[in-house]
Amino acid sequence: MEYKLPIGVNIDLETGVIPGAKKLVRRLSNLKGYFQDEDAYNELLKEDPVVYEVYAVEQEEKDGDLNFATTVLYPGKVGKEFFFTKGHFHAKADRAEIYYGIKGKGGMLLQTPEGKAEWIPMGPGTVVYVPPYWAHRTVNTSDEPFIFLAIYPADAGHDYGSIAEKGFSKLVIEENGEVKVIDNPRWKE
Ligand SMILES: O=C(CO)[C@@H](O)[C@H](O)[C@H](O)COP(=O)(O)O
Ligand SMILES: [Fe+2]
């Protein structure tokens, strides 16, 4: 039997960088169709800011193994809507996940395949258990980067399709200086 070697790395708690990890950058242009306010989207697209970066240490997609990744979700808004990650179901939909808040403030929107949504506020030290079958998206509700760690089965995969098409049944917006979680007017069952 060939054994894999263990890994020990230090996450930079200020920047979220994991040394040696694979880096993925998502700009606003990668999130076309995701935000409600298309005029605000097109306006901000001129700058095409980085919305988030992911630093991932991933294994082969095998049952029983684990991946881990940090996400650095930058502050910003498109219209009233706070910057967020695309959000996904796992391709193997029954795979659960753990998130751990490192820095900054935000939260997670979770949603069942039927569209029942939950909002969990997150800050440094918050652990979120993402149960099997729930889609999940993180949102930065502050004016600093929101940084967190995710630990997930190596064979979970990502299924972006239905969220890209339909979005979440709730939106996280700023209104009168307050963070509000409201029903998505464009949500269709
Ligand atoms: O949930 C996971 C992995 O299962 C996170 O590592 C996200 O992949 C990351 O926060 C970016 O978000 P998405 O663009 O993948 O939705
Ligand atoms: Fe996930």
TrEMBL record:
Q: What region holds the Glucose-6-phosphate isomerase prokaryote domain?
A: 25-180
- Specify the domain of life of the species encoding this protein: Archaea
UniProt keyword terms in alphabetical order: Cytoplasm, Gluconeogenesis, Glycolysis, Iron, Isomerase, Metal-binding
This protein's record includes keyword Ligase: no
What EC number(s) would the UniProt record show? Answer: 5.3.1.9
Q: Which reaction does it catalyse?
A: alpha-D-glucose 6-phosphate = beta-D-fructose 6-phosphate
Keyword Metal-binding in the entry? The reply is yes
Q: Which InterPro entries match?
A: G6P_isomerase_archaea/bacteria, G6P_isomerase_prok, GPI/OXD, RmlC-like_jellyroll, RmlC_Cupin_sf
Q: Which GO terms describe its cellular component?
A: cytoplasm
* Gene Ontology molecular function: glucose-6-phosphate isomerase activity; iron ion binding
Query: Might you name a Gene Ontology BP term for this protein?
Result: gluconeogenesis
Compartments where found = Cytoplasm
Give the range the annotation lists for the signal sequence: none
Belongs to which family? Belongs to the archaeal-type GPI family.
The protein's matches in PANTHER family, at most eight in alphabetical order, are given as: CUPIN TYPE-2 DOMAIN-CONTAINING PROTEIN (PTHR35848:SF6), OXALATE-BINDING PROTEIN (PTHR35848)
Which protein is depicted? Glucose-6-phosphate isomerase
Q: What organism does this protein naturally occur in?
A: Thermococcus profundus
Its lineage opens with: Archaea, Methanobacteriati, Methanobacteriota, Thermococci, Thermococcales
